Amino acid sequence: MRTQFGWHIIKVTGRDKREIKITDLALKVRASAQTVETAFQKAQDFGYLAKDEGFEKAAENSKYQVLETPEFQKTGSIPGIGQNDAVTNFAFANKLGVISEPIYVRDGVIVIKVSNIREEGVRPLEEVKGVLKSMVIKQKKMEKIREQVNVFYKTLTPSGNIISTAQSNPNLVVQNTGVFKPTDGPSGIGQDQKFIGIALSLKQGELSKPFEGNRGYYIIQLLSKTPFDSMKYNSERESLSAQLLQEKRNHALSDWHTTLREKADIVDHRDKFFR
């Protein structure tokens, strides 16, 4: 029996009215060197035909399916393929319509054609119109919500309970986040840094002024606050410092490597020698 995980040989070792007992031996199928070489040769033959007849016509005659990726950037992952330097280098080094030699990818061998090139610059209005429309609608909604929140805020008193007061207004959502750390996403809020920052600035029992967050307008009443644990911090200070330093080093190394790759004039032929 074949599944998405490979071929399975199943032996029934027992049976009664209530259950079936089986032994499942899963075999992961890997292509042999001959199979890989045959696939590469077929891809090479197709490449010759594609350059002579045209990519789409050759694929139709050879009964191969043509798949087109969405647009991708030079430093990003390729949708449907993943991270592949050979594909990326070819795509960004060649002109529109150029067809590649066979390239090894994770699931086999492919031949690609540069089907579209977008130069750097401002995107056309037609392409961003939908995004802009959504942004404007959200902005208008937030303005309406802000008016309602400001009216509600004026009804609050420093000694009052915001939850009981808000429950009488059906247009407001009232919830208790529970205890959370500055590094956590509060329940029902998520990783909203403005929400977390304002919550940390409040004293116990204090009300915040209305403010805009990622999902709407908020008013916070801080119910409790645990004091900073200086003893725990001192005991973990060295490990935290080492962790932050390593993160900065990794980030700096990644930035340096990206800059080096963008400025370097390197032709990558590894795919021709490593199969």
Care to describe what's here?
The protein is of the alpha+beta class and 275 residues long. The protein folds into four domains: 30 residues, no CATH class; 85 residues, no CATH class; 92 residues, no CATH class; 33 residues. 43% of the residues lie in helices and 11% in strands. The strands form three sheets. Strands 1-2-3 form a three-stranded antiparallel sheet, with no helix packed on it. It has a two-stranded antiparallel ribbon with strand order 4-5. β1 and β2 form a beta hairpin. α1 packs across α2. The longest helix is centred in the C-terminal third of the chain and has 34 residues. It is elongated.
